Amino acid sequence: MKFLKAVINETLRLYPVVPFNLRTSKNATTWPNKKPGGKSLFIPANTRTPYAVFMMHRRKDLWGPDALEFDPDRFLDERLHKYLTPNPFIFLPFNAGPRICLGQQFAYHEASFFLVRLLQNFSAISLASDAQPLDSRPPPDWAEDKEGRKGREKIRPRTHLTMYVQGGLWVTMQEAKLGEDGI
Ligand code: HEM
């Protein structure tokens, strides 16, 4: 189910469950400079390096000019080979390397199964703006943002360690009638 996986990936790209993270160096080391001929970066021992997967997943230099659009097809069409395949570390919802999420495949299975069962039982799901508590709505000044996604956000993403929707995600769901959708 390639498109289902692309939808899950695109959701994890724009709204990564673990949106920021950090690593602490045990030993002193150097990191290569991305600029050709640029000096290496010296990282002393016991140094914390925070990094924001959330920001990286939205970078136009890494994902292309449409980086801010929700478009699952980017995981299927020529953009996959242009951006992600040659540079797989631009997509890190489960982290990478020795401490990569141990539950990654389980999480894909779980989310896929849940979505399939949900869509078998409900024929339409839409945001219930009228039911949304005030604190779950984006602050009015977000509307002024023309650069990022804030200007068009209808909910308010928040982060503690993991990301969630402040005040809950209020939706209206249409129950599927028996016999519809092949059930
Ligand atoms: C969408 C769902 C999930 C996401 C986005 C996710 C993401 C992550 C991330 C980013 C890390 C690395 C944290 C770090 O090293 O700084 C991690 C670690 C881990 N995850 Fe997940 N996870 C998910 C679901 C699961 C599930 C379902 C399980 C178990 C059934 C699981 C088990 C683990 C374990 C055991 C680690 C620690 C691995 C280690 O440090 O060696 N995760 N996860």
Provide a concise account of the structure shown.
This protein has 183 residues and is an alpha+beta fold. Helices cover 25% and strands 18% of the residues. It has helices at residues 2-14, 53-56, 60-63, 78-84, 104-121, and strands at residues 20-24, 29-31, 41-43, 48-52, 122-127, 157-159, 163-165, 171-175.
List keywords for this structure.
globular, 5 helices, heme binding, alpha+beta, 183 residues, metal-binding, oxidoreductase activity, acting on paired donors, with incorporation or reduction of molecular oxygen, two-stranded antiparallel ribbon, binds protoporphyrin IX containing FE, single chain, iron ion binding
Which stretches are low in confidence, meaning pLDDT under 50 for 5 or more residues running?
none
Number of folding domains? 2
Task: For the record, give the distance between the C-alpha atoms at the N and C termini, rounded to a whole number.
Answer: 18 Å
**What is the overall pLDDT average?**
94
Helix content: 25-40%
User: Order of helices and strands, N to C?
Assistant: HEEEEHHHHEEEE
Report the major sheet. Answer: 2 strands, antiparallel
Major β-sheet strand ordering: 1-4
Categorize the overall geometry: globular
Cα Rg: 20 Å
Structural class: alpha+beta
Write out the distinct hetero groups bound to the structure: protoporphyrin IX containing FE
* Share of β-strand residues: 15-25%
Task: Please count the helical segments.
Answer: 5
User: Care to count the β-strands?
Assistant: 8
